[in-house]
Structures are given as C-alpha cells and as structure tokens.
From TrEMBL:
It comes from the Bacteria. The keyword Protease does not apply. Keywords: Oxidoreductase. Gene3D superfamilies: 3.40.50.970. One of its GO terms (biological process) is cellular respiration. Pfam families: TPP_enzyme_C (PF02775). SUPFAM superfamilies: Thiamin diphosphate-binding fold (THDP-binding). GO terms for molecular function: oxidoreductase activity, acting on the aldehyde or oxo group of donors, iron-sulfur protein as acceptor; thiamine pyrophosphate binding. This is 2-oxoglutarate ferredoxin oxidoreductase, beta subunit. CDD domains: TPP_OGFOR. InterPro entries: 2-oxoacid:Fd_oxidoreductase, THDP-binding, TPP_enzyme_TPP-bd. Residues 49-196 form the Thiamine pyrophosphate enzyme TPP-binding domain.
Amino acid sequence: MALKDYIRERFFPHMWCAGCGHGTVLNSLLRAVEQLGLSKNEIVMVSGIGCSARISGYVDFHSLHTLHGRALAFATGVKLSKPELNVIVPMGDGDALAIGGNHFLHAARRNIGMTAIVMNNKIYGMTGGQFSPLTGIGGMATTAPYASIDRSFDVVEIAKAAGATYVARSTAFHAQECTKMIHDAILHDGFSVVEIMTQCPTYYGRKNKLGEAPDMIKRFKDITTPIGSKAKQENPDLIERGVFVEKNLPEYCAEYDKIIERAKGGA
C-alpha cells in the first residue's frame, strides 16, 4: 500500500544497481511515512546529486532535486518559508560530508527542524567509485588503487559535536530498525540525523573484495552491535547502532518567529 500511495510509478524501474542498499532505505522511509499517516502535501524531500539523491525523484511528495552538496541549504530555505512542512533530506557520503560538509555543520548547529538521512556506502557510486570522506584508511577505490590513507569521518560523532538534537545509526540489514529511526526523526522537533550504512556492491564491494550484495548485507549484521552491548565491550571494533542523541532544544524556525514578532513590536 505504501509503495502504491507514495511513489511515482512512472519513473520505475529505478536506476540503482542490482543489490544497492538505497532501495532498502527508500522502503524504510516509505514505511515510516505510512506509519505517521502523513499526507503527501505535508512532506518536502530535498536532495542533491548522487545515487542517494535519486530518491527524491521516486517519491510522490513535493520534491527538489538540487545541486551537489547544497541539499541542506535549499532545505533550510524551504523550512524557513514553510515551517509547518516536514522536510526530509536524503544524502550520500559527498553530499553530506564532502562538498556538503559546511552546510551539514551549520544545519546541525542551528537545530533547524528537518531530517537528514545519510546513506553511507563509503564511496562515490554514481561518478565511478572514487573514495569519499567515509571510505577510511585501507579502503580501495578507483582513485585509491593502492588504498586510501585518509581517516574516515564518523557521521554520528560529527552530528553530535555540531549540535544535532536527534542522532541515530543503523544499516540496510536492519530495515525495521531504520523505519523506527526515520519515524522518530521526522517527529523530532529539531535537526535529526539518521546514518544508514548501505552496500555498494558495484564499486565498494568489488574494489574491497567483500563479495556480492548478500555478503555485504550480512556483514552489516556481523560488524555492528546495539549501543552499550556486551559484544561492544568484548570487541571495541564493532560499530554501534541505535539512538545516540535525543534531546529537546529550541528549534530554529520557532526562534526566528520570535525575532519577527519582536521586530513587529519594536522591542
């Protein structure tokens, strides 16, 4: 039912490679929207450029397909002009934390009420498999044929440090968990970040000899663990999943409205 109600069927079949994790993210997003009972007219989806950005073309919401790295800047304009709308911003590695890194930091700092979904497949997929700020030391890519020597950003830690008031992480293996996180992120009154680790079998998987898509998906189960688990204590290299931050602070649009009222009153 969610698929029929919320997608633009005329744009299918989609352009993602077989086994790409972004389809799972789209599925989780649609299920979250369905659970919330939101009208399509209550949602604006803003994306930049890249494999992940194509989500905005497949959903039958108000949507903007904008410039590389500038999705959060456009989304900020939408939210300030129409604060009653639910603004969702799907992004990939580069869109969020390379060319879009500056916008990411300031959207979090302002605590503007929108939901950033960061699909972390550790590579630039659409442009040919270049390494990204999330590839990490030792990762292989077309532009790192002898392995990357760049340390990786941690999406969760950056979001926390920059001031995001809802921060969560899951994987394409944990689709139901993703749905719950996106659901709660949309409801949250502030800047929400949901990192979803996704597989790119075409480039990252092939370059790093991680097998086919099913192997990569299973790997997410093996290398992650819930926050504070005993497994994490026994194996510190495991990546934690869950909600890392959930707190209430003044939301930017609401505070901006107060400034407008103060200006009107001459205070």
